[in-house]
């Protein structure tokens, strides 16, 4: 039940209201987290060679945030992703989702 509630909250958009506080996702924090934790698998060079790592750039915020929340809650299973998001807060998940949603989709077929 808790996982369902978290997923529903994640679908609400760029801000999540919890206990009367509104969190606005921070693109700079998202970039820092993405660079430190995500880029090694989801960077342009890797995803062009290793198709099992999806391109996250340009995906919708709500979709990305829901997937991250689902990995963290155990609703979507992948041991590598669950390990990556396990220590991140819901705000940090939103930051990463915002960062990737604002990126331009790369042309991976050019290589």
Automatic annotation (TrEMBL):
It comes from the Bacteria. The keyword Iron applies. Keywords: Electron transport, Heme, Iron, Metal-binding, Transport. InterPro entries: Cyt_c-like_dom (IPR009056), Cyt_c-like_dom_sf (IPR036909), Cytochrome_c_Oxidase_Subunit (IPR050597). Residues 25-104 form the Cytochrome c domain. Pfam families: Cytochrome_CBB3 (PF13442). PANTHER family: CBB3-TYPE CYTOCHROME C OXIDASE SUBUNIT FIXP (PTHR33751), CYTOCHROME C4 (PTHR33751:SF9). This is C-type cytochrome.
